[in-house]
Description:
By secondary structure, the protein is α/β, with parallel strands linked by helices. Helices cover 24% and strands 31% of the residues. The chain has 6 helices and 15 strands. It is globular.
Amino acid sequence: xKLRDGERIHFIDSKGRHYPLTLRxxxxxxxxxxxxPHDDLIGTEEGRKVVFSGGSRFWMVRPTLxxxxxxxxxxxxxxxPKDIGTxxxxxxxxxxxxxxxxxxxxxxxxxxxxxxxxERGQVISYEVREDFAQRAQENIRTYxxxxxxxxxxxxxxxxxxxxxxxxxxxxxxxxxxxxPWRVVPHATLSLRTGGLFLCYLPTIVQTVQVVEVLxxxxxxxxxxxxxxxxxxxxxxxxxxxPDHRMVAHTGFMTVARRVxx
Length: 261
């Protein structure tokens, strides 16, 4: 598939560093005093090497969702790919699911949810900050290539989830909020029986509090908490060793299943 006007691409240099660009007809990309016209890239194939005006060479590719999240503009801190992948499986996000998320932040998790629920599913995002919602929707449109209002199956509501949930018979609720225990009573009313509740928290103090509320409520079972640690490896010929640096703790994920009290 040829690259189109408005698409997001990444330039990758010889050291594996990524430089993002959104293609726009008639514009010129400048990097360290070198230039390349966008029109020279639109209509061509990804995965090829391009040469800038000063002779520097880069691979040109469409970014994966993981690569895009790490380089996209942010209004709020994002959930990183290593945790998003786990959230999708632990919350069992499936094609056709109806999912509520709060808050929307910069849109990283929403993009992954939208891809997982597919066209038959729906993602409803609650976000109280208008600037966050606007930035997130721009990020989602840039990557998913949807219309001016974003994905047709994505609904953004300027609502405070602590005050209640409008929707009923939800399949999943996924929260990235400081006090998710305040949502537990609302989740009981809005989640279908058998539905899943998942929250993402940075500290164990917050996590202990939400676990205690879930276990004490009576409407949830199977409460579990995990964190994900990722360590890369350096493999080059006979030199094989773990990386000296790793992505350790970023957040705790707690999941519970809604049942009849």
